[in-house]
Amino acid sequence: MSVTPSSAPGGPSDEEIRALDTHWRAANYLAAGQIYLMANPLLREPLRPEHIKPRLLGHWGTSPGLNLVHTHLNRVISARDLDAVCVWGPGHGGPAVLANSWLDGSYTDTYPDVTRDEAGMARLFRRFSFPGGVPSHVAPETPGSIHEGGELGYALSHAYGAAFDNPGLLVACVIGDGEAETGPLAASWHGNKFLDPVHDGAVLPILHLNGYKIANPTVLARLPEGELDALLRGYGHDPLYVGGNDPLTVHHAMAGAMDTALDRITAIQQEARADGGTRRPHWPLIVLRTPKGWTGPAEVDGLPVEGTWRAHQVPLDQVRDNPSHLRQLEDWLRSYRPEELFDDHGRPAARVLDRVPEGTRRLGANPHANGGLLLRDLPMPPLERYAVPVDKPGATLHEPTRVLGDLLARVMADTAERRDFRLVGPDETASNRLQAVYTATGKAWQADTLPVDEHLAHDGRVMEILSEHTCQGWLEGYLLTGRHGLFSCYEAFVHIVDSMVNQHIKWLRTTRALPWRAPIASLNYLLTSHVWRQDHNGFSHQDPGFVDHVLNKSPEAVRVYFPPDANTLLATADHVLRSRDYVNVVVAGKQPCFDWLTLDQARAHCARGAGIWEWAGTDDSSREPDVVLACAGDVPTQEVLAAADLLRRHLPDLRVRVVNVVDLARLMPAEEHPHGMPDAEFDALFTHDRPVIFAYHGYPWLIHRLAYRRAVHPQLHVRGYKESGTTTTPFDMVVRNDVDRYRLVMDVIDRVPGLAVRAAAVRQEMADRRTRHHDWIREHGTDLPEVTDWTWQG
């Protein structure tokens, strides 16, 4: 339906509409001023070239529409005393959001030097897209923001994440029509099938159609209205339409649409909360059509600008050098009548602030947009309840993630009342052996159910949708508004969110330099179903490279862990779930794995991050070893220990040291990463010049990159995954990639001085076993008995 002034009885009066228009004009003036001016902010004198920034950066095209939304959100927040935040999706809407934050005073509260007067306005203008200033898009530096505007696609999933378990919160979300063309945004429309009107807040999407991207028309803006309406209704929304060129008419229509949408949201929530309604509602959505660059120059140099792609960035781009452009800019800025909007001191006039909320009701001051202010410690149960007994290393096996699942079930149960922990993943919770959580909560689901379905629940806190982008966006929105969570994913397919994690890491790095941003719970990944145990899925499911990607990022914000067994995974999980302001990547298998360490040993080992397993080696602590066998990852650890066992039996005089690495950043120099080891500590562990045979879970060159500055690096030989994958047996995968125990023994013989001659027979035997393995699996379809039946005998 279309909302017009006449279809919204009881809406704002003409006088109130004029007050809203005054606020909107002030915001438009401030947005344009940020792009152009570094002096003369109130045009108290004729505009001259020296008043103009030397580099004109920023984006005007989306700003008037965002200012309109902000103005009308102010109105309904004030009138209804709403607890609300807004996710600003259009990538470069920074001028608008900063303008409104300055108007309502939240910017000055955050940055006291940017006062709400003429001097502060000048600082606001100058610092925008200026060296030492703030970005052109909505960013961590922007008060009220929980969404990085530098990349498109994630606004709506962030909005739903913010609304989950926030029953009193309204999350408005402006979606630009360019963003609406992205794959992540297209999937995120389905968030309404997971939004529980009883325990969750509400999301109000506002689809802003201004017609153009940087240089092309947008798809949704060019759809016939009936087709667009059918699409949005198919997504499960009840759309309201607002549009036009006349400001007062659009203000009336927008006010009516806002009132209608919020009345519907209230009715939906009341029915669900008071009357026990369980049907899935069709939530309201506003479609706002306004011209791109509205109220800006209609034409420049004889070419149309307003309402076209030419308004996207800087409509007048030669202002310092072209007198005609300078005059046109001055006319444009004066068209907002700044003398009516600001008093003699440059403060916003009372009429401008007539409908602006106060205190924490302001969009720029809501604590949900600074989630660390609301964050509570996660209740972590004692690990002793869940640890597996280890009488001696390698005698028993457990599925590490299944053991972790029991711990997560307890965390879910202990947060049942406060509802501030969620587990997300793309349809893989049970596949990854975490299904114990279903004893404490179900899977969130608002759509139809069938008798055959299991564990679906309207109030569930396990989130499954086969879209890694949506899972990531939900969890980010949840964390940024002050809660905790874990993302469980198949290792090969977490790459789908490479770009999203980039943005989150950048957000964390930036917020560390902003004292007003309180630390949030870490973004925790559990990567399982990993490269070495994809027996039936094969090559398509084999890619361990997400770790490489993450370790390229800001060292102060990223951590990578490879727990080798169940107890070490428990200790690692306890650590990462308690942590703040990190991206933690934990790689652990779901298949049966040997238990190597007791819980106390696992805790100590995790605290060190890397250490010697004395019980596994044969070196004498009074002398350096002949060789170091190092490992990171559960399967490489097993192969290294099997290799150590072979060396113990075949070359008993060889001094072998076994080093296991849990925290991969420990390999880096201390000056490169907070967890990095000083050279002396590294040399004590790996030696200064002895051969190091390193079996690594992922791509071997990452280990070389992390350790290239170490003294032992010339002696470092790394085995790892080298893109040799297929559907085959577990042991054949390590053989194909030369990480198997026999190859590791051969590497030791090849690299320890003097060993090649006296151990030639041993080397030949190892090569023969690899050949026998090749023939055996092709005849029997299973691994050699000596492999499948192997246990640690040390």
Give an account of the 3D structure:
The protein is of the alpha/beta class. The chain folds into 3 domains: 5-359, Rossmann fold (3-Layer(aba) Sandwich), CATH 3.40.50.970; 383-593, Rossmann fold (3-Layer(aba) Sandwich), CATH 3.40.50; 610-788, Rossmann fold (3-Layer(aba) Sandwich), CATH 3.40.50. 37% of the residues lie in helices and 13% in strands. The protein has 26 helices and 22 strands. The strands form 6 sheets. The chain has a 6-stranded parallel β-sheet with strand order 12-9-13-14-16-15, sandwiched between helices. A 5-stranded parallel β-sheet has the order 1-2-3-5-4, sandwiched between helices. Helix 2 packs parallel to helix 3. The longest helix is centred in the N-terminal third of the chain and has 28 residues, at 247-274. It starts with 13 loop residues before the first helix and ends in a 6-residue tail after the last helix. Residues 590-792 form the Xylulose 5-phosphate/Fructose 6-phosphate phosphoketolase C-terminal domain. Belongs to the XFP family. InterPro entries: Phosphoketolase, THDP-binding, Transketo_C/PFOR_II, Xul5P/Fru6P_PKetolase, Xul5P/Fru6P_PKetolase_C, Xul5P/Fru6P_PKetolase_CS, Xul5P/Fru6P_PKetolase_N, Xul5P/Fru6P_PKetolase_ThDP_BS. Its cofactor is thiamine diphosphate. Pfam families: XFP, XFP_C, XFP_N.
